[in-house]
Amino acid sequence: MALLLAVAAGSSAAFLHAAPTRRTTPHRGAVVRLQVDDFVDPDLVSGTFVVDELAATWARAGKGRQLWKPGDKTDSAALDYKLLYTTWKLNPLVLHGYEHCPFCTRARLVLAWVGMPFVCRFYGYGAGADPVKCEGFGYDPVEGGVVPLIGSKVCPVLSGAGVPVREGQLGLPESLEICSFAAGVAKDRRIAPATGRKDIDEWLNRVKPTREALERPRLLRMAVPDFADQRDVAYARWKHTRSGFDFDAAEKATPKLLAELAPLLDELGTMLRGRDPAHGSMPTLNLWGLSIDDSLVLPVLRSLTCVKGLEMPPLVREYVETGCARAGVPLFTEMAS
Ligand SMILES: N[C@@H](CCC(=O)N[C@@H](CS)C(=O)NCC(=O)O)C(=O)O
């Protein structure tokens, strides 16, 4: 085979000029792509013993066949899935988001917990916001952030080969949809679905005003790509201020807010019912281990690590530390203020 290839490659110019008179090569389907530059496609220059022999060898070896690509169907769904997963290993999916954003953290945690091959790409928070619609705040309204992917400036978005997308979009938005997709296709590990536990829902609602008041002024000061540019900080300040948030008042209220938060964190400690042996025995909300419920609560706790001096009950602290560490997601403790 090597000899034949060498002979054919060496005589390529002659083959290219020889008009094919008859076709004796085995039939190999309509599409043949040779993957070696400056090499002669035997289908096109048949007619000599060497070329016919070469073509037969290609056919026997299966070379020159079109490669499988995401979206192609063999007659086996299991094989298609295996090939798709290999594609992801070679070309990881991309999770587009903001480092500080709890929705992005949710998707990131779940993708990592279930072992999906992916990388993160972070954007400035003002990128993609239209200054015409935002009283002069924001920049790059057409090309910025995830606008080219989904037509609007909302993160997270998952993109990559084989990711299901709606018509006109190039990526999958909505954190819970990303989690659901990942949980459905993951190969390495599993995660249990959400339970709809009422106590979790209620806790999230009750903690929201307090945690937002604590987080908002501090998140903007962190050294993360989201707020690397002053235009990003200005956009975030504008966005929250126009909805009635007072940054200065929130900072001044820190002691009161911390006092409000303490019993809520104690309460959360009592809601952690299990541990997950498949994940370093980390604490979990449910008895059977990690579930989508944890992806609702953990991002909130991660955000709170930007508050300097915030104390968490030991179990809750262990929960956020191990849950995020299992996913390679850093806490904000070192940037806390
Ligand atoms: N329902 C969406 C919410 C996503 C969301 O609100 N993302 C925020 C980031 S924290 C965003 O991109 N906001 C853009 C903006 O307000 O400019 C999800 O779960 O993914």
From TrEMBL:
Key word Signal present: yes
Top-level taxon of origin: Eukaryota
Domain called Glutaredoxin 2 C-terminal: residue spans: 199-336
Database matches in InterPro entries: Glutaredoxin2_C, Glutathione-S-Trfase_C_sf, Thioredoxin-like_sf
Entries under Pfam families matching the protein: Glutaredoxin2_C (PF04399)
Signal sequence range: 1-18
UniProt KW keywords: Signal
The keyword Transit peptide belongs to this UniProt entry's keyword annotation: no
Protein name as it appears in the record: Glutaredoxin 2
Organism: Chrysochromulina tobinii
